[in-house]
């Protein structure tokens, strides 16, 4: 089980790198979907097939693996965009920053004391590296959709950390968290549509009338 | 009782969303607002220690009553506001969203489980996003997008903080629970690196939601573009609720014996917010954005007060009340001025005293109140915080605090006086909007309350404030 977890987490890190390096939005959405599906297996592989972990995994899979990608694909179909053009920082530099921050995450995780059963696992460094990736996408990309993807990756990172604590989190709260994520993406989708209608582009750099 | 507090606005919101005739029914708002306020006053403090998820403690009650009172007055204003906008815009979402917003704010004040608190605060973001987008133009889209994205990321950071705190407690040989009393009981033996990381994330996460610098950039946009009554609820209600999230973190740090570290970080965040607000509030040509920077400033004062501790914590609790009520008066009267000129920019808003004398008068008095002039309430609370700062032996800090307050006073004063004094411009067509009882009454009541708080502190309130402040001190 231990090896399987680490394998899954390594795949999550690879997904991070793909989203940082790719300009095709459709591919990015697919990879983020894959990442969501991968991490939704984690509760079961970590805690065994109890009712709680099965429900959590199934809920996360339905949401991150099916419903949210469907919303996002519908959004890019409606606004007819394929590519992220001209990110604020180029793809190669963001990949480099991503690689550096991933190594930093592995080093930093060494300093955080883990309880016995989590030692030698990749949970903490992966969560931190994924967090950085989400931040990078949020801050360097201009399309509203890519920013939403950044937010999703960010949420995935928190989910990875949350899996370690699934006993502390009652199912009701987890449901609430997932539901909030769903509604957030839904509302963001609506706003994206409105941005597109008003500005006939999804570039958030046009959203710059409000500043000092 | 507590369940009723949440269910009342929640059910009303559902009813308003489902029944078409109720969607535009402005009168529903004051009705529910009055019921909610009565309930909030009548709900007694809950006994702690029984592991309940919904518990009303002194801190929660303070925020709850202030928020509820503010909502009641805003809801009266909303009746007239909605009647006016009904013909122009699609305002179907307004009433259900406002009620839902109140329900989530209430849930956050009584949540005694960190997970539940998080869900409640995140839901406030989602409930208020349609309210900010109410005006449906390019600027309000931009403001809504920033608000949604920064708010969601900020609150995600808070979730990270909660998880780190939970992981810290995992090192204790007890079943981990995020129920707040159990967390407080277990946190003393927790792993320090994890607890500290958790507190920092909680502070930054809820700080984003509250509008502490440096993650305040959504605030001027959202407050500037949202309708005045939404601005009032955000600046007076939501910020206090987000601050409550930070205070829960402070409580945890106090229980773990690490209060000094928590206070240091609060002082740093507080000073940074004060300084940033002082820079941006000067020469601010937009009346509502100016109020937003003033809100950043006052969030800084709250953080600073709790960061100093002792008497200043009591001052910060009092300031939370004063800030909410004064911001309410300012935003509502600014909304009236904006309507009278169809603008909130200084290039068009001049001489408001002659066009809407009552609202402009409230606005000027509100400005004097919020900048800490006697005899209004904020003067007492800011002075208490200042005494606390000097009393704890930080004369330099006290000096910087006074200097920044003075800069903000001068900066805001320039904008406020330009907007209200002098001749009204003659080239713009005079609008037909005048002060009416429904629109000018609520801010006037809020201002009178602030004035009363400056002259006299009622005994029940003083006791409540002391109980709340006591929760934030180190346990012997």
Structure description:
- The complex is a heterodimer of chains A (212) and B (476).
- The model of chain A has no long low-confidence stretch (mean pLDDT 85).
- The longest helix of chain A has 29 residues, at 51-79.
- With 212 residues, chain A is mostly helical.
- The radius of gyration of chain A is 17 Å and the shape is globular.
- In chain A, helix 3 packs parallel to helix 7 (171-199) and helix 5 (123-140) runs antiparallel to helix 6.
- Chain A has seven helices and no strands.
- Chain B is globular.
- In chain B, 63% of the residues are buried.
- At the A-B interface, helix 6 and helix 7 of A face helix 6, helix 7, helix 9 and helix 10 of B.
The most extensive interface between chains reads: A-B, 41 and 48 residues
What is the number of helices of chain A?
A: 7
Quick one: overall form of chain A?
Answer: globular
Radius of gyration of chain B: 21 Å
Approximate shape of chain B: globular
C-alpha Rg of chain A, in Å?
17 Å
What would you call the structural class of chain A? mainly alpha
Average of pLDDT of chain B: 89
User: What is the structural class of chain B?
Assistant: mainly alpha
Strand content of chain A: under 5%
Summarize the helix and strand pattern of chain A as letters: HHHHHHH
Share of helix among residues of chain A?
over 70%
For the largest beta-sheet of chain A, the strand count, sense and barrel status come to:
none
Multimerization status: heterodimer
Structural key phrases:
heterodimer; A: 212 residues; mainly alpha; B: 476 residues
Write the layout of secondary structure elements.
The complex is a heterodimer of chains A (212) and B (476).
Chain A: H1 2-21, H2 25-47, H3 51-79, H4 91-110, H5 123-140, H6 144-164, H7 171-199
Chain B: H1 2-18, H2 20-23, H3 28-42, H4 58-85, H5 94-110, H6 114-132, H7 138-170, H8 180-186, H9 192-210, H10 218-225, H11 228-255, H12 259-281, H13 287-308, H14 311-341, H15 352-355, H16 357-370, H17 377-391, H18 395-420, H19 437-455, H20 459-471
Helix pairs in contact in B: 1-3, 1-5, 3-4, 4-5, 4-11, 4-14, 4-19, 4-20, 5-6, 5-11, 6-7, 6-11, 7-9, 7-10, 9-11, 9-12, 10-13, 11-12, 11-13, 11-14, 12-13, 12-18, 13-14, 13-17, 13-18, 14-16, 14-17, 14-19, 14-20, 16-18, 16-19, 17-18, 17-19
